[in-house]
Every structure is written in structure tokens, then in C-alpha cells.
User: What shape does this take?
Amino acid sequence: MNEKPGDHETSFEERLAMARDKQGLEAARPDPGKSPDALDGSALAIGMRVGVEMVCALVVAVAIGWGLDRLLGTRAIFTAVFVLLGGAAGVLNVWRMFAPKRAPAPRNAAAAPDVPIRGVPTEDVRTKDRGP
Amino acid sequence: VAAGSGSIDALSQFKLEPALGPLGTQLHFAQSNLMMVVAGLLTLALLWLGARPRAMVPGRLQSAAEMAYETVMSMCVDTIGPEGKGFFPFVFTLFFFILFGNLLGVWTYDFTFTSHIAVTLALSLLVFVLVTGVALRLHGWHFFSYFLPAGLPIALAPLLIVIEVLSYLSRIISLSVRLFANMMAGHVMLEVFAAFVIMLGGAGLLGIVPAALSFSVNVALIGFELLVAVLQAYVFAILTCIYLHDAVHLH
Assistant: This one.
């Protein structure tokens, strides 16, 4: 259904835009200038995300540490070490979430210049080479 | 709701019961599994019935099917890049399985299979294995440089590599817990306020007003649940795309 019959297209697009204007539909478009965090704007949601990220890293770390301890018979050494590492990993997760944006990759700039994906936690897209 | 006993039993709604009578009992086929099948069938029905008219000017269902296709397709291509087209079937399936699972759960009598961490953990493990497999396939051993931040003093490498690996592994948990916690919390809230309606409504004249208030809270919660259902399915899918982007581009 997406055939584009060259010369008809412009006039159809114009007429469509006019019709949409008349119906007031154009205003319904999402404003690209809006904050990309529009969907997860509430403080509670942000708090939940931070909490989940931190606790998850800790859970993984404690599980690994506890497993290593059980495996090697070294009671609580690995658990203790991995609790600290897990906390650090949790902070790293949170840092990725809120770190200032790097300059966008050229591919993204070419493909989608002004369309932020709204409400998307974009933290993980960023690369990891920004030192804290 | 155990209103008669005077306590709120908000968690029994997540109990697995055999579906389909004696056959389900024999096969250990729970209502959760039944809803998974229903969710899959609904996705297929949306696409099949939506695509069947093949109209130049689409009707409502065809529009919905086309919008579903285009939304997921643009999500894949925008997030992952041109390579995203290859992952479209996976992301589409994942998104609609979760979306229908979440939405079916809002419907009365239905069971929300995404409110079980076993289900969401299986889904996120699937994503994790796929993402890691894709990264290993595309980059080979170079994949492990992902855990080594560039420009790092070599003395810090052992410490930071462990932290990066932990952070990478924690995706499994955070992806599954996010979906599971959202769905479960919403349904517990619904159950609690529904219990309030019954308990307060039975408490005589004085209880009518708070019962009505709880009821209106529940009405608002249903709307909120619809939002959460769609949003969490979207978040799961977009995070899958972001992880795939990381796997394809590595840095």
C-alpha cells in the first residue's frame, strides 16, 4: 500500500497536510523538542529504576560470590569481596543511566536526526569509554 | 479475596491452577500456559486477519496490523541500525507476546503470566543468550574487549573487568525483575483495593463512602494498568533492541 507515484505524491501530501491542519490533527504530533524522559518523568519511576539497577547488580554479585564460596570451600571470602564489587557494578549501572550524553554516533545522526525515542532508557547505548 | 476471614489475600491470584480440566491436570498445563497460548494465537490472529483484506486503503484491523509492523520495524532499525531488520522477527514476537500477556491480565478472570518471575526470567535469559551469541558470532574473541573500557590503566583492569562483567550479567535480572515487579505490583494493588470495597461495603452505612472511594481508585488503577502493560512490553522490547545494538556494534 506504500506505492509512491512520483508526481502525485507532493500534491497528495499537501492536501493531506491541509486536511489534517483543518481537523487540528497536526498538533497531536509528538513534539521532538520535548524532553526524551517524558515517559519516565516521575520521580518515583526514576527511583524505582535506580533501585532495580543497583539491587540487580548486587544480587548477581552475591550469587556468584556465594557460589564460588560453596565451590571452593572458602567460607564468606568471595561473598564479601563480591558484595563490594556488586555495589560498584550497581553504581556503574546507575552512572550509565544518568551520565551526560556523548556526541551521537554519526550513523544515528544520519538516520534519525531529530527523532528521539521517547521514554527509552538510552543509557546502555552509550559506550563505556567515558571515565567516571 | 478472603473477605470473610477479615484478611486480604492478595497473592493467591498468582497461584497456578490446572487449566482445561483433567487433561490439563495430567499434562501439568496451568492457566498460565493457557494464557501464553492465547497470547500467541491473538498475535497470529491480529496479523492473519489484519493482512487478509490486502486493501490499498486499510480498514481498522489492517491499520492496526500495519502499525504494529511499522512500529516494531522502526524500533529495530532506529535502535540497532540497518542490521536491526534481521532481528525484527524476534523483537516483534517478544513484544507482542509480552504485550498480549500484560493486556490479557488486565481483563477480569484472566491470568497474567508475566507476573511470574519464572516466565520473565526465562524471557530475559532468552534475550541474554541471543545477545551474547550474536556478539560472539559477529566479533569472535574480540567480544571480550567489551568488558575492557578503553584508556584504562592496566593495574585497574582486573577490578574493572569484574565490575563490567557483573554489570553485564545484571541485565538478566533487571530486565526480568522490571517486567515482573510492575505486573505483580499492579495486580496486588487491584486486589487490595477490591478487597477494601468488599470489606468496607459490608461494614454498614459508615463504610459506604470509603468503599466507593476504593472502587474509584480501582477504576483509575485499571486505566493505569493498561498504560503499564503497554509501557512495560515496550520497555522490554526496546531494551532488547539496545542490548542487540551493543552486541552488533560492541562499543
Summary: Chain B is about 75% helix and 0% strand. The longest helix of chain B spans residues 157-201. The mean pLDDT of chain B is 86. Chain B touches chain A at residues 55-58, 66, 75, 77-79, 81, 146, 149-151, 159, 162-164, 166-167, 169-174, 177-178, 181, 231, 234-235, 238-239, 242-243, 245-246, 251 (CB under 8 Å).
